[in-house]
């Protein structure tokens, strides 16, 4: 389970970086809280942060399920694909929003494999 925990920790560090970058852009662009719109550059950073937390809600429990019921090393590999996908998503979104698609696809695909694999593994373990 250590590989699972390490991978989740890395994903959370990545999210913390996205959060800090978003805060930096809020200050740079003069977008005062609680506003979340008004400057297109800030809005891209904000969307990266928000979309990433939405994906983490699925990622964290799916990682635990897959790591426990299927394979921690394979789960960690899939988790690294998720982290890479989130990084590509962010870079694409920051530069030009339509360029986020490849990163989104990688993170979504890895999340689906983790979730379905973990759920199937749990069902098999039950019976």
Description:
It contains 4 helices and no strands. It has one domain (2-126): Four Helix Bundle (Hemerythrin (Met), subunit A), CATH 1.20.120.550. By secondary structure, the chain is mainly alpha-helical. It has helices at residues 2-29, 40-69, 72-95, 101-126. It is elongated.
Short description:
This protein is mainly alpha-helical and 127 residues long. It has a single domain, classed as Membrane associated eicosanoid/glutathione metabolism-like domain (Four Helix Bundle (Hemerythrin (Met), subunit A), Up-down Bundle), CATH 1.20.120.550.
Can you lay out the helices and strands and say which pair or pack?
Blueprint: H1 2-29, H2 40-69, H3 72-95, H4 101-126
Helix pairs in contact: 1-2, 1-3, 2-3, 2-4, 3-4
Instruction: Indicate the mean pLDDT.
Output: 97
Q: Can you give the helix content as a percent range?
A: over 70%
- Radius of gyration from the CA trace? 16 Å
Number of helices: 4
Structural class by SSE content:
mainly alpha
Global morphology? elongated
List keywords for this structure.
single chain; 127 residues; mainly alpha; 85% helix; elongated
């Amino acid at each position: 389970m250590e590989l699972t925990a390490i991978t989740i920790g890395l994903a959370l560090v990545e999210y913390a970086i996205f959060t800090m970058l978003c805060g930096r852009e809020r200050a740079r662009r003069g977008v005062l809280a609680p506003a979340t719109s008004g400057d297109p550059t800030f809005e891209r950073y904000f969307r990266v942060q928000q979309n990433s937390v939405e994906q983490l809600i699925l990622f964290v429990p799916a990682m635990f399920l897959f790591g426990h019921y299927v394979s921690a090393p394979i789960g960690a590999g899939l988790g690294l694909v998720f982290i890479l996908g989130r990084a590509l998503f962010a870079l694409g979104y920051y530069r030009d929003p339509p360029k986020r698609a490849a990163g989104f696809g990688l993170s979504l695909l890895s999340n689906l494999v983790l979730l379905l694999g973990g759920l199937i593994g749990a069902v098999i373990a039950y019976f």
